[in-house]
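Limitations

Structures in this collection are predictions, not experimental determinations, and the ligand pose is part of the prediction. Treat each record accordingly. The example that follows, with zinc ion as the small molecule, is included so readers can see exactly what is and is not provided: the inputs are given verbatim, and the output is the predicted complex.
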Amino acid sequence: MKAFRGTLIDFTGNPRTERGALRHVEDGLLVVGERGEVVSRGPFPRDPDPGLEIVDYSGRLLLPGFVDAHTHSAQTDVIASHGENLLDWLERHTFAAEARFADAGYAREASEYFFDELLRHGTTTAAVFPSVHAESVDAFFHAAERRGLRMAAGKVMMDRHCPQAVRDDAESSYRDSQALIGRWHGRGRLAYAVTPRFAPTSTERQLELAGRLAREHSGVLLQTHLSENQEEVRWVRELFPWARNYLEVYERYGMVRTGALFAHCLYLDDGEWRKLAAAGAAAVHCPGSNLFLGSGLFDLAAARRAGALVALGSDVGGGTSFSMLHAMREAYKVAQLRGVPFDAFDGFYLATLGGAKALGMHECIGSFEPGREADFIVLRPGATALLERRMASAESLEARLFLLMTLGDERAIEATYILGSKPLP
Ligand SMILES: [Zn+2]
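Predicted complex:
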């Protein structure tokens, strides 16, 4: 057994709606068992077991690892490309970058870099879009498995309105996805996510098969984009004239379900929010990307009214940072513009247990409950000169966390642990 001393912070539920959901032990001890599971969490004992190997992180904050509920491993090389808007950005930058993933060697190298970057930023679990090529998914899962990570991904399905180099067809996308599910889903800590890019780049036949894949394989996730940009919403109305709204397109094909992750959700009406919530599907709020591409401002108040599951996503490369601290502060700014209350506990909840719930992994990760997998991070409050100076006058835990989320980046991540150990480089 190993143990870690420091300030322990985690959540047992949503702190905005559940009293006592935030847990904070200022001088705490996290004990991790041989299989990498949390054995116990609590105050640092007066007489610690002398046989216990204790790593001393006094003065630092220990939290469950961050969950990035929406990102793209095939877009690292177009991050921070100047774009006009979503559809223009896809055409000009994204499709060309994703086309390179047909090359297995490149896909392997890019996947290794992607995980190094996630771990440097304290992200231990993510729901990820590689590319349309099966090679990109194999490369992704091999790299995740080697590091022992809990990760979800799936082959992007895309059979129209895109260049040939990133296009599949409905039947082959179904067969390839099936083979990948067989190869990877439930292997160790890996989960497969059925991944149609978004309604405009799939024929109705492909959407039908995506829904079928989700039904045929119990426990697989489903991820796509929904209502990110007004021009896109108009296009969907043209392409699917029978649908009363965007969500109904996915609904018809059985894709609005538990374990479904819908990135963005910027232009949903109350009816769509209610349906999403009733189905147990999650909205993934990607504020960094929404601001960068000028897509719009997420309506957190509507999501809360409907009781929908919400998680946070970096959406790299539309988003400009791998950091979930960055996602939290951008979410705060969007909430400010919308006049919606949003504090540091909201941010850290969404990036830990909230994300785990959206992915249906909250029984495995997202908190320090005994038995959970010990994926955790060590945050250094004085990571930069400015943070150090400012922390000196931060009295409450809320103030300290708010400073980290507002001023912090990967320099604040002192260490990232996977199953109680530092992952292989
Ligand atoms: Zn995206």
